[in-house]
Amino acid sequence: MVAASLAFAALSASAQQAALVGVLGSKALLVIDGTSPRTLGPGDSASGIKVISVGGDNVVIESAGTRLTLRLGDTPVHVSANGGGGKQRLVLRADSRGHFVNSGLINGKVMQYMVDTGATLVAFSQSEALRMGVKFQDGQQVMIGTGNGSVAAHRIKLDSVRTGDIELRNVDAVVLPQPMPYVLLGNSFLNAFQMSRTNDEMVLERK
What we know:
The chain is mainly beta. Helix content is 5%, strand content 56%. The chain folds into 2 domains: 8-74, SH3 type barrels (Roll); 101-206, Cathepsin D, subunit A, domain 1, CATH 2.40.70. It has helices at 126-132, 187-190; strands spanning 8-10, 17-24, 27-32, 38-40, 45-46, 49-54, 58-63, 66-71, 77-81, 88-93, 101-106, 109-115, 122-125, 140-146, 149-163, 166-176, 183-185, 193-198, 201-206. The N and C termini lie far apart (44 Å).
């Protein structure tokens, strides 16, 4: 059964939109600019959008040189990379709880993150680290204060953190033992951006 939830993304300066409405085996069911759904597999293109890869609940697409990961149920994301040396921008929209949640990549593995300006570092659980193949065991052992007291954690450097077409290398992170619903996108990533917020929209622009 095709899931009814939608993930939207503006893919270029022309504000082209695509929606992931389902995954059928190795193919994605995409709605592009409100047209009838199209079934596209890796390497297929339609209306200037090329499918790069298809996962269980996500698809990586490319348009005008910009790559994005769409997931079923994602909060809308608008990404633009201005040509001619312009600054990269990421525009996020808040969900019903006021949180800025979307998908990205850590070391090339898909993850779901939540922007957390109160977190010093990118933070995620050991179970998530194991799923993504992040080797945290050799990291520096540190004590981290949480709502339930201090816990032993591992401080590491991530090879890359990517959201939309924006990628940062060698990002400081901490891996915690307790389960976490999202990767917390903390200031070790966010400090590379000028941030502004208007109502339910947050804009991150590379410094």
